[in-house]
Amino acid sequence: MIIGNELTNLLKNSNNIIAKELLRLKTDTPTWDKNIDYINIAIENPSKISYISKNRIEKFISTIHWYTIFNGTKLKFNKKGLLNRYHIPGNIWVINPCTIRMEDPLPSGELLRVTNGSNSYWYPLSNFKNIKCKFKYSYFENIDNTWNNDLRSKIAYMINPGKFIKKLELDFSDKEIQEFFNLFLTDNICLKIENSYFELIKGDAITEAYHYSNYYSNDNGTLASSCMKHDESQNWVNIYAKYPDQINMLVLRDLDSNKVKGRAIVWKCFNEKNEKITFMDRIYTNNSNHEKFFKVYAENNKWWYKKIQSYSDPSTFMTPNNGYIDYIEDYIKITLKNAVDKYFPYLDTFCTGNINDCDLTLFNNENGYYNFHNTDGGPFKEELEIEHIWSSYEDEDIPVEESVYCRFIDDRIYEHHAVIMSNGDYMPEDSDNITRIDLIWYYNDELIYSESNDEFLLPEDAFKVNGDYYKEYEVVWSKYNEEYILKTDAVKSEYHKSWLREADCIKINDDQILSDQVEEYKLAFNLVEEEVIEI
Q1: Which end of the chain has fewer CB within 10 Å, C or N?
Q2: Is residue 230 pLDDT above 60, yes or no?
């Protein structure tokens, strides 16, 4: 049984008992056991197996792809792909549509069958002295080459892996078959199919993934033909690296070389209802069959993605909806802070935009004033070619290309002197009005100052106790008093089922009891001594 490379890789990466049995049955030539051979992971759905039946492959192999030469001249086809009408000596007309098949030699000699519509005619080849026929057969010279082209999807059946094992009549239990089926449902299936893996990247890693030197192949697919893969485009695609909180990239890499086999920009944007969505833009791959893997990844993460992988269809999407994937036409947008002084690459979906102050809002329709369907750096390139501009902050003329606009000080500063704030604005890195928390910069007035820690805290991480603010690990929540208490001042009470202030409690029987409820506690546990009255 011949097993394709993709399925072989999946089986080799598993300790499953059925996977080992299939590898044992693998051969270099078809065996047609149970009338089945040429098995692999299905192109249309990686969670299924595709296979070919013997009857179907024999029928396909018998089909002859042909062209005919008449009097030394190749017969011409018209614009519709139909063969023009030709007269052949012997009062025979060859009129499209027709198929020509070579048959086994017969007693009367080799025959040629000409089919015209519903009528078939057989003629000895000797009748065609002035016509030469040349034939091409489609057959399986190499399983790997065959299963990488359109023939596979045309002649292969697709089936649930569990049903496939039962079709082979292999002796395995239902539990073992289910465990084998689960191999095709794992999240890391692309790690095993074709020796690849997915990586979600941002920042400078996006720029690197665009450059052709990092491609797995520069000869195949839409990835190899990308207009943004060259050296001069690195300045254009660098815009993606400037907005790591809004723009990521999903990359399919080769497991051995880490080279890029496919990529798609991932935007965190808004739909027509102003709801936050994550949208995966056009998919570029070395192999169009890999587009399905990107779509499955998007569906599993509840992302939107393009219905048609083309720049010419910017408003039709597939969206997750209660476990189903729906087709939708929608308007989406994204606003990039301080983006009017940047180079831009060719944008497949966000094709137009408008500016407001120094901010840019991109749209997937024709409503925007500026057009982003160009490959020479974007609509602001001419303005960027102004050599220098005066900066009061830097106290000198600085190159526009190396500068950014700082709204806080209403001035331009060197980009390498600036940091990006949580809202997308730029600020001087030496400003006393900003603080960095977990690699993100915030304005101080967005934060809460903790005197005890002598530092700024995020509001969601600041807990107020006795007029000051503390970090989460420094406090506990008192359910009884409905307040936070410093952990150093608190004790846990089993009786009150809450944290309490130690100063408010008395320890009795290894438990902490509120001072004003000690008598109640003693009565509840019969700890009150009876009063004895002498007569």
Answers
A1: C
A2: yes
